[in-house]
Specification:
Mean pLDDT: 79
Organism: Patiria miniata
Distance between the termini: 216 Å
Protein name: Exocyst complex component
Number of strands: 2
InterPro entries: EXOC6/Sec15, EXOC6/Sec15_C, EXOC6/Sec15_C_dom1, EXOC6_Sec15_N, EXOC6PINT-1/Sec15/Tip20_C_dom2
Number of helices: 26
Strand order of the largest sheet: 1-2
Family: Belongs to the SEC15 family.
Radius of gyration: 69 Å
Low-confidence stretches: 230-254, 257-266
GO cellular component, one term: plasma membrane
Order of helices and strands: HHHHHHHHHHHHEHHEHHHHHHHHHHHH
């Protein structure tokens, strides 16, 4: 069945389907219509659908016509009203246009302001964008400025770190900007300039530290000196280093000394006042750049050259202590700095490298000190040099450097110091001996006496009982020599200080030096004094007395040495001083010289002797020269009062023997060809005076008759001729109880021949001499014959 409204012949299902599609088209949007059209197009009945659609359109047209017919009057009314509205609309339009024009006129400023606002907003957007870009670039620029500032302030290591951060962190963020490309291209140049600037600072540092190394060494020595409590006299004003620390702080940027640290503080190390930042900075920079080996090689090479300069002496060191100080200061300054670099860096200076450098320098330093000190002849200067060497070694040890060769040098200095002291004391002793008057000291007051006893240990109970003025047994050179020996010991003790010797070693050293002084220097001076020809006999006697008191006084030097060295008990050197032997030998030589001088003086008088050996009769008194000799001997032996009794006795005995032998030589002189009995009798008067002198006991202590025995031979000889007792002599010859036991047949023959020759000469002058004379001549010939027989038969006596 079909719907009458739609085309005939269509099935009902199709009709319903087409109605649904049309309803959908009417109610749906364009998207659904397209889908419906596509569905109809895809089907086979679109023609029928078009027919159905056309029928539906016609139906709607009929509905519209019916509706228009129903509403036509209303429509006409509406058109009339619309026409009325048209007029109103035109007026409204005019009003709107007028209002619009008015609005346009009033809105023009607003539009302009809006345009301005638009431009401002655009500018603002640009500014904001610019700020964003600048904020992105600003860290790069700030870091670059910071880099330049760090380089200007010579903070090169920090600048290098900043440069790395700029290169690897900041620049990649803004690499699209052109200025960043320029920065990136400039980075290698900046890195190179940092290296060059840091190296330049290092060179300036090395040059400055070389100039100021002596100040560093001086301060280091002073610091060690304060710690070890050595004598403050080691340091004196006017040292070779800079006068004040302030002189080290200058406007020079290369100065390694930091002004902030320059204060008067004894506890501050001199290295605390040195700015080592150029070294650290350069080391870090080269390490960061991977060139540490290059830097280490350069640093060690430059410091090696400076070490050679440091160990070179300036001028003749032995002329002035300042040269030694400066030499020690510059060496210490160099190696103290190197030790500091060793302890504050890793690998720049190694212990092995520093030990090699020091050992190389050590041998040269020791050789330099040994060569220069060898020319020193001033004990005071050498003592000051020793103090400086000791302080130098202490400072080296405090920094861990080996100083053994220099310590061994001190032993050489000790020997040289002793030699200089010996030469000095030769002059001192010689001057004392030259200026002494060789007369016993006379003290007027107790104060003078106490001053002498304080100088030299001397006491005499007998002397203290005597009133003032008192006459001491010795002359002035005794206390002076003793005092100078003590001064020598003090000088030796000064040198032994600060050598780290034990009390026993110091005591042994001083005793050995003192023994050398006594055995060589003083002994030599005493020998020279004793052998001095200008020294008189009385002075020689006084010298002998002086040696006795010096020997007694020098026994106390043992205790004196022990006191100043602090040695006690078993630690005292067993050898002791050799003063006893020295003064005993000197005294023995002086005694021998006294004997020689005494005999020489006797010879001087004997040279005045003038005998007439042809006298017929004696003059009846002794010769004048004999009396002079006896007076001289008496006066001399009175001066022997302070000599030991044995010495005075020996001198007296020696003089008498010498006189006796000289007189005997007169008789036996070969130049005397003639001798008369009168001359023998006159000679006997001289011998009598000698015997009287011997009997007077000029020196006490002789055994009875001991001194007289010196003239017995002469007396027996003269008595034999004057008594003409030849029968007794010949009969008792070689008998112990013989009256003429000391008469030698040879001597008798010599004198008898001279007497015979004298008789012959007289007989030639007086041919007719008496019978007694002829008998006497025969007797002489017979005695001579018998005497010659005695000589030929056995050894002579006497």
């Amino acid at each position: 069945m079909t719907d009458p409204k739609y085309p005939i012949g269509q099935p009902l299902e199709k009709v319903e389907e087409h109605n649904r599609l049309v309803s959908v088209i009417e109610e749906s949007d364009s998207t659904s219509v397209c889908q419906i059209f596509r569905a109809i197009q895809d089907g086979n009945d679109h023609e029928r659908f078009m027919q159905h659609l056309k029928a539906r359109i016609q139906e709607h047209d009929r509905d519209i016509e019916r509706m228009c017919n129903f509403h036509y009057q209303g429509f006409v009314d509406s058109i009339g009203q619309l026409l009325k509205v048209r007029a109103i609309a035109e007026r409204l339009k005019e009003e709107v246009l007028s209002t619009n024009r008015s609005l346009q006129r009033s809105g023009l400023p607003v539009i302009q302001q809006a345009e301005d606002l638009e431009r401002t907003r655009k500018t603002h957007r640009n500014i904001v964008a610019t700020v964003e870009h600048l904020q992105l670039c600003l860290p790069v620029l700030q870091m670059y400025c910071k880099l330049n500032e760090q380089m200007e302030n010579k903070r090169y290591y920090t600048a290098l770190k900043t440069l790395e951060q700029l290169e690897h962190t900041q620049l990649p963020r803004v690499k699209r900007y052109r200025f960043c490309e320029n920065m990136a291209k400039n980075i290698p140049k900046l890195r190179e300039s940092i290296m060059e600037a840091s190296m330049s600072d290092l060179k300036d540092f090395l040059e400055s530290i070389r100039k100021h190394s002596d100040w560093i060494g001086e301060e280091a020595m002073k610091q060690v000196q304060r710690r070890s409590n050595m004598e403050s006299s080691v340091f004196v004003k006017g040292s070779s280093g800079p006068n004040k620390e302030s002189s080290l702080v200058e406007a020079d940027s290369t100065n390694p000394f930091s002004e902030d640290f320059i204060e008067e503080d004894e506890e501050i190390s001199p290295l605390d006042k040195v700015d080592f930042s150029p070294v650290y900075r350069c080391l870090h920079i080269y390490s960061v750049l991977g060139m540490r080996d290059t830097f280490e090689s350069y640093y060690r090479k430059q410091r090696g050259k400076q070490s050679k300069l440091a160990i070179q002496p300036h001028g003749n060191m032995y002329e002035n202590l300042k040269h030694y100080k400066k030499y020690f200061y510059q060496i210490l300054g160099f190696f103290v700095v190197e030790d500091h670099i060793l302890n504050t860096t890793e690998g720049l200076v190694t212990r092995q490298y520093l030990d090699v450098l020091w050992n190389t320098a050590l041998s040269k330093i020791a050789a330099t000190l040994r060569n220069n000190s060898a020319y020193c002849t001033d004990a005071t200067l050498l003592l000051q040099i020793k103090d400086q060497v000791v302080l130098f070694t202490h400072t080296l040890n405090s920094y861990g450097f080996n100083s053994t060769p220099i310590v061994e040098l001190l032993l050489d200095l000790k020997d040289q110091y002793n030699e200089i002291l010996m030469n000095t004391w030769v002059q001192v002793f010689s001057e004392i001996f030259d200026n002494d008057n060789y007369t016993a000291i006379i003290v007027e007051t107790e104060q003078e006496y106490n001053e002498i006893t304080r100088t030299i240990p001397f006491s005499s109970t007998e002397l203290e009982k005597l009133p003032y003025p008192k006459r001491l047994p010795f002359s002035e050179f005794v206390p002076k020599v003793y005092q100078q020996i003590k001064e020598f010991i003090y000088a030796c003790h000064k040198f032994s200080q600060d050598l780290h010797l034990t009390q026993t070693e110091r005591d042994d050293m001083i005793r050995k030096s003192t023994n050398i002084l006594l055995m060589r220097t003083l002994s030599g001076c005493l020998t020279a004094l004793i052998r001095k020809h200008s020294l008189g006999l009385i002075e020689l006697v006084q010298v002998t007395v002086n040696t006795i008191h010096l020997e007694n006084a020098c026994k106390y030097l043992e205790d004196f040495i022990s006191n100043i060295t602090g040695t006690t008990g078993d630690n005292i050197h067993a050898a002791g001083l050799q003063s006893t032997n020295i003064f005993r030998d000197a005294r023995s030589e002086a005694e021998q010289e006294i004997y020689k001088r005494l005999n020489a003086k006797v010879d001087d008088f004997l040279e005045l002797a003038s005998y007439d050996w042809t006298l017929d009769e004696p003059r009846g008194h002794a010769s004048g020269y004999i009396m002079d000799i006896i007076r001289f001997l008496e006066g001399s032996f009175k001066a022997f009062v302070h000599l030991p009794g044995k010495v005075a006795q020996t001198a007296c005995l020696s003089a008498c023997k010498h006189l006796s032998q000289a007189l005997m030589d007169f008789l036996l002189d070969n130049n005397i060809r003639l001798m008369t009995m009168g001359a023998i009798q006159q000679f006997s008067f001289d011998i009598i005076q000698c015997e009287l002198f011997a009997n007077s006991e000029p020196v006490p202590g002789f055994r009875e008759g001991a001194l007289q025995m010196t003239f017995v031979q002469l007396r027996q000889l003269l008595d034999l001729f004057m008594v003409w007792d030849w029968s007794t002599y010949l009969a008792d010859y070689n008998q112990p109880t013989s009256k003429y036991s000391r008469v030698n047949p040879h001597t008798a023959i010599t004198i008898l021949e001279k007497m015979r020759d004298s008789e012959k000469k007289k007989s030639n002058l007086f041919t007719n001499f008496k019978k007694n004379d002829r008998d006497r001549k025969k007797l002489m010939d017979m005695v001579l014959k018998q005497l010659r027989a005695l000589v030929s038969s056995g050894p002579p006596r006497g």
